[in-house]
Write a structure and sequence with these properties.
The complex is a heterodimer of chains A (234) and B (357). Chain A has 234 residues and is mainly α. Chain A has 13 helices and no strands. The chains are: A mainly alpha (234), B alpha+beta (357). At the A-B interface, α2, α3 and α4 of A face α1 and α2 of B.
Amino acid sequence: MEKDAAHWIRLADQQRRSGSHESALRFYSRSLELDRTAVTGWLGQVQMLVQLGEYPQADVWAKKALEVFPQHGEILSAGAQARCRMGSLTEALAMSDASLARPGESAFRWLVRGEIIVAQGGRGDDHCFDKAQILDRDWLVPLEAAAACLFHKCPAKALRRAQEAVERAPSSPLCWYVQGDCQRRLGMESAATKSFARCLELAPEHLGARARLAESGGALGGLSRRLGRLFGRK
Amino acid sequence: MQCFSCGFNVMPGSTACGRCGAHLALAAAPIPITPPRAGPFAKRFLPGWWAFNRRLAPLLLAIGLRESALPALALPMEVVVRPLIGIVQRPVSWLPGVPFLVAGQRAPGWLLLAVWIAVMLLALLLHGLPVIFMLLIGGALALHAASALQATGLPSRSVGARLAGIVTSAVVLLALFYVPLAWGAMRVIGGSWWLAPVYVPRNAPPLAAGEIIWLDHSARPQPGDLVVTFQPRTLRRVRALEGQEVLMVNGVLLVDGVPSPWQSDLRPLAEGTRFTVPDGRCFVLLPESYAPGEKPPERPPLPNGGSDWRDREAMVRIVLGQREILSDVANWLPLTALIEGRIVGRSYPVTRFGRIE
């Protein structure tokens, strides 16, 4: 059976939903190799590069994609996201403005707008994230909003979005993992432990959750041991 | 043939869509299956730089908001703070023309870069003419500042604001780019921390009036080095170092019993002169004014200081102040106190560029 671009994009989406951004990036690239006129491939490639922290590369690929699809709203937003992560907020805002001015609406445009507002430390991010969730009921939208808030060191905002993602997709280990990460950063150790444990139940091979659980278990275990010694227990 | 971006019917063979401008050739170009990734250097250092940028960015935006709230403060903040932070924040502005290239404006970018390089080269060629040199460097700096301003995103609110922005950018670039560049060039050329140009005001063979020589202030002179002394500035050649025995026999200068390679202008030394150079001093004489092996020409006895730069009164004052001095043109100089530096080479005129032996 011959594998076409749509097949690789499907695989990439699956990997993206499981949190394997590296594999997703490879599959998006494969799809692009077969069909360079598929905007999903270009967009996914840029989004995965951003998720992997390769911002200059994401910026370059966003520019390449914009040559093929001039003024494409989502690609403009993806470029804005890369710029935002590199700290060029003025340019990111300008690109986001341009993307929102394009006809049509999409969750990703509002997601990026919300992230830029979070990076600015301004208000109005809730409105943008809510708008994104209204436009797309997929659980990936609140989860990516949570990841963006976490990146910009706003774990309280991130937790709210992560909880929404968990409500929408309770069987997704990635949602539980991100929620646990938010809770851990907020100092909610027991809740974080439960979230990581749930993630491990759903995906026993999830290395991140296992490591986090070991960390929190080690810290708590150490503390309980010390308290036990303090009160004379061996 | 249809544009895959907007669906417009384009002429076969077109490289771009006539309606949306989509790059049709790029869509057909092969794409590497391995996605581009950052190198180890970028992975190590860039995240910290981005984190710094992300912390700085809200501050910049806050300044922008304050500008709109307080128009009276807008100009100084705009023209001083934004170029300052913008240039530091964006390394792309450190090279002239590159901000235009990055912005996709290829023609002005390349033109600016080419003109800047041409002006800098011209300035280097003509650095012996101070006024022209300063004008050329000023022009190059102005071009560079205008280019950097493009990267900082300063809006051209008024001509005054733009000019003030260029001045601020020029000052920042001077400190960030030109001074380190000059320092680095000196390090490369001379290998010393203290290499500096010196203008030669009068003929002093082997130097001619109007030339520019480079003095290495930090290097310890070695026998054979041409050195310049302090106040008055005189040109001397080091013949022997501390602890070496100098002997004049049959018109030949012997250093530690071996004939010195520099046997010219030995007139100040009488036949049979014998001494040991004291510690912390070196023995210097006038430099030879003729090629090695050539017979020294007959010259009148040093009118007005002869082949050095000083006037006779100043020379006499120095002579009286130094007891070790043998004559007006030969003396023992303290290695550090009286020697300004070792001559490394000549940079102007360009036709005589090179080392001075």
